[in-house]
């Protein structure tokens, strides 16, 4: 049944109680997670599909909680977005990712790019572009050779087209590239896409993973590639797991991707080893 509680309508079902309790516990634990050192960034290479050459890294947030153990971002990011904590977390992610790409570039990976995921809540918070400007200045990122790429999801963008567009414009003035994440899962219209200040489309992994088995997925991916070419946008395929998927993507005209076939997201030490090996060989 339903009961009115402090002006809100609350529905009671045992499983829901359970879910609400879990949500609240995660929410509580999230506050203080950074201070307790429970957050870390993992990095997944973005590569040329033919040569495997690493051209960028995507920073992915990891949370290892003292009570719950590892909690997936798909579970805790929405909670952090809801409470507003995503702003603090997001600032930490940006700062840590920028520090890391500078370190890697200084050690010889001169052209490496660093992709960071943004939620709209962060992007639309007042003063966000100012904070990004500060981070860019603190780490002395060169606007003419900017390593920072920001990823926003297609669905997030179409929720508030005008505000998002304006916010992205301010970031682009800093030399930062913007990639449209999970492309194909939302319904961005052609005219929207044309107005958006984005540099690349990231083909969602659900399409990539159906490429070999589903002709409809192949047609979808082909249309996204044609669309990107028409709008002069770059392309990145995510979730590439098999050589067959890689070959199909290249055949269709997509040259850049990421996925378990090349490397899983991994902690910085593991990436350092790969880097040390490739620099010494
Ligand atoms: P995303 O940005 O679409 O990231 C790609 C997800 O696919 C990552 O999941 C990655 O680990 C996973 N992945 C990579 N290669 C493969 C593959 O070959 N096969 C399969 N099946 N999966 C692959 P993850 O790390 O669990 O992150 C989930 C989502 O959480 C991300 O999706 C992103 O939307 C969000 N997220 C992660 N870190 C951050 C962050 O720092 N800030 C914000 N706002 N969101 C983040
Ligand atoms: Ca992403
Ligand atoms: Ca994605
Ligand atoms: Ca996703």
Automatic annotation (TrEMBL):
Signal peptide: none annotated. It comes from Thioalkalivibrio denitrificans. This is cyclic-guanylate-specific phosphodiesterase. The chain holds residues 431 to 711 of 720 of the full protein. It comes from the Bacteria. Residues 23-279 form the EAL domain.
